[in-house]
Amino acid sequence: xxxxxxxxxxxxxxxxxxxxxxxxxxxxxxxxxxxxxxxxxxxxxxxxxxxxxxxxxxxxxxxxxxxxxxxxxxxxxxxxxxxxxxxxxxxxxxxxxxxxxxxxxxxxxxxxxxxxxxxxxxxxxxxxxxxxxxxxxxxxxxxxxxxxxxxxxxxxxxxxxxxxxxxxxxxxxxxxxxxxxxxxxxxxxxxxxxxxxxxxxxxxxxxxxxxxxxxxxxxxxxxxxxxxxxxxxxxxxxxxxxxxxxxxxxxxxxxxxxxxxxxxxxxxxxxxxxxxxxxxxxxxxxxxxxxxxxxxxxxxxxxxxxxxxxxxx
Length: 313
What we know:
Helices cover 38% and strands 15% of the residues. It is of the alpha/beta class. The protein is globular. The chain starts with 5 loop residues before the first strand and ends with a helix. Residues 3-264 form the NmrA-like domain. It holds the Pfam family NmrA. This is NAD(P)-binding protein.
């Protein structure tokens, strides 16, 4: 392997898969290590010449040597809406990476909080990310030579079911019941694959020219090029579904009692439906409405709009 190896973990999920796809044409495959719970999903990447490893966030022994020989790691967040458990698993992965000699971590955070310099959010789902961001900063003081960049991946268009009580355009209901009236501030929706593409481009720029990399120790935010209110977003979903769909404002308790929400927001036996309603308060405070130009610059084009993305699903 060369003098600078780059790893992605987990490498087979939504953000990970998109990043892997766009890293391969940017860096030498033999310098890339893709780590996944199900490495069999990375057959094409193996054939391209990348190294594939197996590791599971939930397995301490997996993490112990998963990052051996890695110089730069793109650590994507643990897939959950939990707080304490999620933060713990991410911190364990960071510790394992540093023990293995990783000198730089790009951390895939989430796009709540508004502008990238913000360190606060009312969204429950953001708390583990904020904990991890703070932990990375602590690690730079405890481990001389270690550095990081936080990439707050914006709210991706394909995740709209989380904010619409799991509305399905192929079997549409006439009402979307949420604890929000649909008015602004809005959401700067962004296509998930473009988040991966932007992450790959940022990482590649760092690897190719580390001395001039301007985002060391900083938090960056990837967003779409404009905001849509929840009402405007639902109007687009209505168009896609070819049925009149309207928002029905309900209470937080009513939202939490909807069976589809209880089913989809349960992690490790705990129902997080009520906690999830904090995202709607975050929207009311404008936490999802900040438009940042960085992703457009990295892509070299305007990010794809919400309507185009959801129409193609």
